[in-house]
């Protein structure tokens, strides 16, 4: 429990990180550092995206699986680490 | 009666060996051929027939119907909460979350994911992989790709009875909307069911017009006010002028009174530049050009009769079909007439006689489009009959440049607002031509068949990339031009200026020479008038002139078709030669 907190704090402390969201497989945000409406929005949209990305990778090669997804946009980068039951979503603005 | 065969054999002979004997061949039946039967057969020509043992296949084409798409929003409501947890209650959700956080698998997966995530975050912070290294360098020269244009959208007339798109106008701010005027210009082709409406389309949505304009009579032309993007003015088929404000709905805010309007359809209406921004002027085939103030459409503020003799006689006036107004030269304007004459007029003249400054006679038919080059206002483009002509204001005898006679009638043209050497024309066979006179003068640089029916109107958006053309069946097609034809090339202005100057000079020299010859002719004819009595061409009876004109015409047509046929045959011969070589 404490290690989880420590990990999240470490991630939050990195340069440019704007927010962290942990979502479970049903789309319920478990932990978040952003405000609730944005969190819900991110959770819903990103879950669909991850489903689609995962199915794409598996269709091309059934032995393969999605390990990480990065969405780079003009303003920031959304990084999604999917797992069997949970997703970890981090929004970073890496302008040096 | 039963047919029975009795076969008896001695018991002792059963199982005995068969003793075969040989004997010579015996002729049993001989059927000779009957030559008389051969006469009943008809010889057929040999034919190659391929036979294949395979399944029967058939080819069939399917095209889906145009589908209507509609954008609508979806309300994302939270889901996924288990049945016993009420998402609205804070307590329950917090309890649920705390429970999940204590879960073993949660801790493990988060630790794993966290380390992967950290790696990527650090990566992002270390090097910016999206950094622009070559930002300061100038744009590389455009690769020489062939010019192209692609259709983006087609806006079709939603009514059953399709009308022609006779006028188009882009929204002045950014061009996200296109206003199209629909009317049926063919004589007596309108029935009672044809709708009178015209539409404003949003460029992104071809399924439904954004707004409908409901005039009392179909609109032949319309124009957005360049100063106020909510107002439009339109000219109707019955000669009235109507003024709309899009914020006030589909009905015109004001309509001009029938007594003081035009008596023929208003073919062109343009907003003027004035301090109040409410002035417009219109032209019609009844021979008048009327000026209006849209705040008071009950009567025109000014009137000009297009009488070439400058006496203001309406019965001798020429019908106006196109107007031209450039805001950099607010006192001058030009009118293209039905008779092929372009009149250049001055608005600020004191007497009506001085209003018409000069005329340019160039076309055999109505001058359907007239526009000054936005970069070189002294030169203007006219389109009428089968050619497009470029004129210089100083040369009144003839145009300085012209295209060759096209295969079908040209109906509209306009200059590109970004490239001074490019102009667009549309023809009655549904073809949009893009001419780049710095590249090629004899043929269009790009010729696109937009649709099967005739195209009647054309308008370019201010950025020079989007062009809208309207067809006879009410379809307005939106095309995007490739960047090569819509970005200013280097030295284009100076090259074009040089070209225009050269052509103008050529025309001036020709004009001077013509004048010289005429003077010489005149002086010579005066001297020898008593001697030459009946040898002038003008004394020939009109029949002979007609027959001579006929023979000339037919001989020209024949030589042209013969030349075409020869060229085709030559192509075919070349192909055959290539084929023979292959063998």
TrEMBL record, chain A:
It comes from the Eukaryota. One of its GO terms (cellular component) is cytoplasmic dynein complex. It is found in: Cytoplasm, Cytoskeleton. SMART domains: Robl_LC7. Coiled coil: none annotated. GO terms for molecular function: dynein intermediate chain binding. Keywords: Cytoplasm, Cytoskeleton, Dynein, Microtubule, Motor protein, Transport. One of its GO terms (biological process) is microtubule-based movement. InterPro entries: DYNLRB1/2, Roadblock/LAMTOR2_dom. The keyword Transport applies. The keyword Amino-acid biosynthesis does not apply. It holds the Pfam family Robl_LC7. Residues 4-92 form the Roadblock/LAMTOR2 domain. Acts as one of several non-catalytic accessory components of the cytoplasmic dynein 1 complex that are thought to be involved in linking dynein to cargos and to adapter proteins that regulate dynein function. Cytoplasmic dynein 1 acts as a motor for the intracellular retrograde motility of vesicles and organelles along microtubules. Belongs to the GAMAD family. This is Dynein light chain roadblock. It comes from Sparus aurata.
From TrEMBL, chain B:
SUPFAM superfamilies: WD40 repeat-like. Its main location: cytoplasm. Residues 520-583 are annotated as: Disordered. Gene3D superfamilies: YVTN repeat-like/Quinoprotein amine dehydrogenase. InterPro entries: Dynein_IC (IPR050687), WD40/YVTN_repeat-like_dom_sf (IPR015943), WD40_repeat_dom_sf (IPR036322), WD40_rpt (IPR001680). One of its GO terms (cellular component) is microtubule. It is found in: Cytoplasm, Cytoskeleton, Cilium axoneme. Keywords: Cell projection, Cilium, Cytoplasm, Cytoskeleton, Dynein, Microtubule, Motor protein, Repeat, WD repeat. It comes from the Eukaryota. Residues 520-536, 559-583 have a biased composition (Basic and acidic residues). GO terms for biological process: cilium movement; outer dynein arm assembly. SMART domains: WD40. One of its GO terms (molecular function) is dynein light chain binding. Belongs to the dynein intermediate chain family. This is Dynein, axonemal, intermediate chain 2b. The gene is dnai2b.
């Amino acid at each position: 429990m404490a290690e989880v907190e420590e990990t999240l704090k470490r991630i939050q402390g990195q340069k440019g990180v704007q927010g962290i969201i942990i979502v479970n497989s049903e789309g319920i945000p478990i932990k978040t550092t952003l405000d609730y409406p944005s969190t819900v929005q991110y959770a819903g949209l990103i879950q669909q995206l991850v489903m689609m990305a995962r199915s794409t990778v598996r269709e091309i090669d059934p032995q393969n699986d999605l390990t990480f997804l990065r969405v780079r946009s003009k303003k920031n980068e959304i990084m999604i680490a999917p797992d069997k039951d949970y997703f970890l979503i981090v929004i970073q603005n890496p302008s040096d | 009666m039963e047919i029975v065969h009795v076969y008896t054999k001695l018991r002792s002979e059963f199982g005995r060996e068969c003793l075969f004997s040989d004997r010579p061949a015996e002729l049993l039946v001989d059927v000779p051929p009957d030559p008389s039967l051969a006469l009943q057969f008809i010889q057929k020509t040999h034919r190659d027939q391929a036979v294949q043992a395979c399944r029967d296949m058939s080819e069939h084409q399917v095209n889906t119907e145009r589908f209507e798409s509609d954008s609508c929003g979806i309300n994302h409501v939270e889901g996924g909460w288990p049945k016993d947890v009420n998402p609205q209650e804070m307590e329950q959700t917090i309890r649920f979350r705390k429970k999940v956080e204590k879960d073993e698998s949660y801790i493990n997966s988060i630790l794993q994911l966290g380390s992967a995530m950290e790696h990527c975050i650090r990566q992002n912070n270390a090097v910016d992989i999206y950094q622009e290294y070559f930002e300061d360098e100038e744009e590389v020269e455009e690769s020489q790709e062939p010019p192209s244009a692609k259709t983006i959208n087609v806006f079709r007339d939603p009514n059953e009875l399709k009308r022609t798109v006779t006028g188009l106008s882009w929204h002045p701010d950014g061009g996200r909307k296109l206003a199209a005027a629909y009317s049926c210009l063919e004589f007596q082709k309108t029935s009672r069911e044809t709708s009178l409406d015209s539409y404003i389309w949003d460029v992104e949505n071809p399924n439904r017009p954004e707004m409908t304009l409901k005039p009392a009579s179909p609109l032949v032309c319309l124009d957005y006010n360049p100063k106020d993007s909510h107002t439009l003015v339109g000219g109707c088929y019955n000669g009235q002028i109507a003024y709309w404000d899009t914020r006030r709905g589909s009905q015109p805010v004001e309509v001009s009174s029938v007594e003081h309007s035009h008596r023929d359809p208003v073919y062109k209406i343009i907003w003027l530049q004035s301090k109040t921004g409410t002035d417009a002027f219109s032209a019609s085939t009844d021979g008048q050009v009327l000026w209006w103030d849209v705040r008071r459409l009950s009567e025109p503020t000014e009137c000009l009769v297009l009488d070439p003799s400058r006496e203001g006689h309406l019965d001798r006036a020429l019908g106006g079909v196109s107007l031209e107004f450039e805001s950099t030269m607010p006192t001058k304007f030009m009118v293209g007439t039905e008779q092929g004459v372009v009149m250049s007029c001055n608005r600020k003249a004191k007497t009506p006689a001085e209003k018409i400054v000069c005329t340019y006679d160039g076309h055999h038919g109505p001058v359907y489009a007239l526009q000054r080059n936005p970069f070189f206002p002294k030169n203007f483009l006219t389109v009428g009959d089968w050619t497009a002509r470029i004129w210089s204001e100083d040369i009144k005898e003839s145009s300085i440049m012209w295209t060759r006679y096209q295969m079908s009638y040209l109906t509209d043209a306009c200059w590109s607002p970004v490239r001074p050497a490019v102009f667009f024309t549309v023809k009655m066979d549904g073809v949009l031509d893009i001419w780049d006179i710095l590249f090629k003068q004899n043929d269009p640089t790009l010729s696109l068949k937009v649709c099967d029916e005739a195209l009647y109107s054309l308008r370019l958006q201010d950025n020079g990339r989007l062009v809208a053309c309207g067809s006879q069946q009410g379809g307005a097609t939106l095309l995007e031009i490739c960047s090569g034809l819509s970005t200013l090339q280097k030295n284009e202005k100076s090259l074009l200026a040089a070209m225009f100057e050269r052509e103008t000079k050529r025309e001036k020299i020709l004009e001077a020479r013509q004048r010289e010859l005429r003077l010489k002719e005149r002086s010579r004819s005066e001297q020898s008038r008593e001697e030459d009595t009946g040898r002038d061409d003008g004394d020939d009876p009109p029949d002979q002139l007609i027959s001579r004109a006929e023979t000339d015409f037919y001989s020209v047509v024949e030589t042209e078709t013969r030349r075409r046929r020869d060229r085709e045959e030559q192509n075919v011969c070349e192909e055959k030669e290539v084929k023979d070589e292959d063998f």
